[in-house]
Amino acid sequence: MSEKPIFVTQPSLPPLEEFIPYLEEIWSNKILTNDGPFHKQLEKALCEYLSVDHISLFANGTLALVTALQALRVTGEVITTPYSFIATSHSLLWNGISPVFVDISPHSFNLDPHKIEAAITPKTTAILPVHCYGYPCEVDHIQKIADTYGLKVLYDAAHTFGVRDKIGGISRHGDLSILSFHATKVFNTFEGGAIICPDAKTKQRIDYLKNFGIVDETTVIAPGINGKMNEIQAAMGVLQLAHVDKSIACRQEIDRLYRQDLEGVDGITIPEKPNTAQHNFSYFPILIEPSFLLSRDALYENLKSRGIFSRRYFYPLITDFPMYRGLPSANLSNLPQATDTAQKVLCLPIYPSLKREEIESIIKMIKAHT
Ligand code: T4K
Predict the structure, then answer these.
(1) Ligand 1 close to Cβ of residue 86 (< 6 A)
(2) Quick check: pTM over 0.85?
(3) Domains along the chain?
(4) Ligand 1 near 156 CB (within 6 A)
(5) Is the peptide bond before 271 cis (omega within 30 degrees of 0)?
(6) CB of 91 closer than 6 A to ligand 1?
(7) pLDDT tens for residues 12-57?
(8) What is the CA(108)–ligand 1 centre distance, in A?
């Protein structure tokens, strides 16, 4: 085993020498931000790669979420999941919106559509589901509910870069979807994010909102924010895009090795691969059941003591944090499935530069407890 710590993820980075010409170009043209040439190039390239018509780049995924809610003019209450990264529901609080938490499905890590209707009130204006780990939500069922009650749907698609169903990119669903290009994601621009927009008019409005609401030198149409992606991030994205397929293929191989050796191990449940045309293998979650010799937390600590930094994404639940736990919908009795999953989940390291012998030794350490 190497002396170096092994994290749950490590950013995929292109060879440094490939990035130098991009930096030279930025230094020479002196456009550092505000819809510069790399920004334009990345938007175009991402539309092609993700098979979407319009995209608006952001400095990070959280600003994309906050802005998407404003673009959809969402107010009042929004139905969302407790099983996600904290940014999902924080984006609601930043807009003065009350989150209403609904449990996840027993068959996935995502919002249970069967439980959404019971949570709708006259104040509900939208649904904010998450395609957790890149596993697609039940989009048709969710859309049907939204259509019936006149609700907007904003997908937190932070984990879904490159995920496709039989028809196209997963991020085309809903009124809007947001992506994250954070360092820990399948595709990264150091920090970064985007909103997938259904039409040019919506993109235009979002472009204004992320640039202080400025239309031109003398016109400001809304109290927008500074959510812009800069040229270094955008250049990184353009270069990363050339490497992302290879990177996803490496992740797929790691997924295969884990499955091959951990499937059937007593006390470990490995979620089935999602039924997608293309998955991105962004995470490798396993569930540590009571029949496993160690508790989930003991296994987590044990791996950590040996330099393996797995992560309990998403434990604690969002509803366990102080700014949410007082809400009626945060009550544990409302969220039995999410509570159970959060107690059992462990995400194992998965990233392109993870070596085969490192994977084998992680598997060996886990199996030593069976
Ligand atoms: N919605 C969802 C569903 C999300 O998962 C996220 C972000 C968002 C919205 C918001 O998008 P952004 O605003 O972030 O674009 C990480 C990420 O910071 C966060 O982006 C991500 N989700 C979340 C699931 O994971 P932490 O606090 O667990 O990250 P951290 O710093 O502990 O990194 C994990 C491991 O990765 C480290 O142990 C070491 C390694 N690492 C990390 C960084 C940042 C590196 O090797 N290099 C690095 O530069 O939140």
Answers:
(1) no
(2) yes
(3) 16-241 (3.40.640.10), 244-367 (3.90.1150.10)
(4) yes
(5) no
(6) no
(7) 899 999 999 999 999 999 999 999 999 999 999 999 999 999 999 9
(8) 22
